[in-house]
Write a structure and sequence with these properties.
- The chain has about 375 residues and is α+β, with helices and mostly antiparallel strands.
- It is built from 9 helices and 19 strands.
- Helix 3 crosses helix 6 and helix 3 crosses helix 9.
- The two termini are about 40 Å apart.
- Bound molecules: flavin-adenine dinucleotide.
- Flavin-adenine dinucleotide (FAD) binds next to helix 1, strand 2, helix 2, strand 13 and strand 17.
Amino acid sequence: MATDRRDVIVVGGGIIGCLTAYLLSREGLKVTIVEADAVASHASGFAFGGLGPLEGAGIPDPLLGFSVWCLERHASLSPELEEASGVDTQFHLRDRLILAFDDSEARRYKEEIKWQKDVKGFHVEWLDQSDVLKVEPRANPACLGASYAKGTGAIEAYRYNLAAAQAAEKFGAEILLRRVTGLISQGGRCSGVTLETGRLEAGAVVLAVGPWSQQASSWCGVEIPVSPLKGQVIRLQLTTDPMRASLNYAGSYAASKPDGLIWAGTTEEEAGFDVGITTAARDKIMGDLLKMAPSLADAELVQQTACLRPISADGLPIVGKVPGWENLYVGTGSGRKGILWSTGMCHGLADLIVKGSTEVPGVSSLDPARFSGG
Ligand SMILES: Cc1cc2nc3c(=O)[nH]c(=O)nc-3n(C[C@H](O)[C@H](O)[C@H](O)COP(=O)(O)OP(=O)(O)OC[C@H]3O[C@@H](n4cnc5c(N)ncnc54)[C@H](O)[C@@H]3O)c2cc1C
């Protein structure tokens, strides 16, 4: 096994690992990505790819500024990655509707619109039922109305992960398909990783192992409180025109994708590391889909996928130096928004490694030290 020295080893070939490797390689650092299975073979390769910075965990406080920054960076990163890798991530802006079926949902969305409509770069308003149907004729006419946003985005997650990996390689990064089993350390300094056979040395190590972060906790002796949250998605073939906007209801979603299919999700299941698809999940997702768009009852189911989100103990991402270590970094815990947040998380990590600080807004609130009273 090679032992020649690298500047940085990135453990994990999901989006957090590959994009961090790209940003570091672009700065001239010698980077190795070590991936146990295959690049984009877990959540980052199967995610729905919605880029919605106006709702979800940590939004608006403390992560609205961070989330908006992340979406803006997607817009500039997409052509940058395509130029370096030849892979089109199919980033695009897409209108979204969050449907309300009763008064309390309508009140809640109207309340949120009060601050959302002031966020620069977006247009957010309440639409009554008849206007909802003008935006998306497939929406359920039984809805009371919807929160409508223009300016939110979408990307093809698998292509994005692949583009980041290939762009990193273009700037000199290498990708090794090996399982990391531990860290090589001298006091608080990490000088590399151990593999099932052999070891690799580096000046710094980034842990980007998604839901497997608990394993990394045992390597470094610091609790990284992340667990897997299973999510399933179905893909359906439609013989008529594609949907115009994404539909959302009670944490579920549906939209037409550039592959011509409608993707609909999702579930939140505590099932350990099991990634089997289930009929119960399929039925739940179909139920939500038909509530949002009853006319899709005839669409043909062509694929069902399941994968694991990395969920942190407080629902916010974990980005920064591992407490007690000089040169060991972690990027994980992105939950349901890891594709959106990848740009801010990875720029934050790369900045901390290269410059010791970052100007990405909000990254300081993601410091892993928050779990150890730091
Ligand atoms: C159903 C579903 C839908 C989603 N939809 C969206 C969405 O619409 N928008 C959005 O923003 N986010 C979405 N997400 C969330 C997003 O997919 C995740 O937050 C993100 O992909 C996590 O990226 P990651 O790189 O941290 O983890 P992963 O993609 O899991 O990558 C971690 C990698 O580490 C590797 N690894 C683990 N242990 C080792 C080891 N010992 N040695 C070497 N390698 C190792 C794994 O093999 C894996 O490849 C969705 C997630 C799911 C499940």
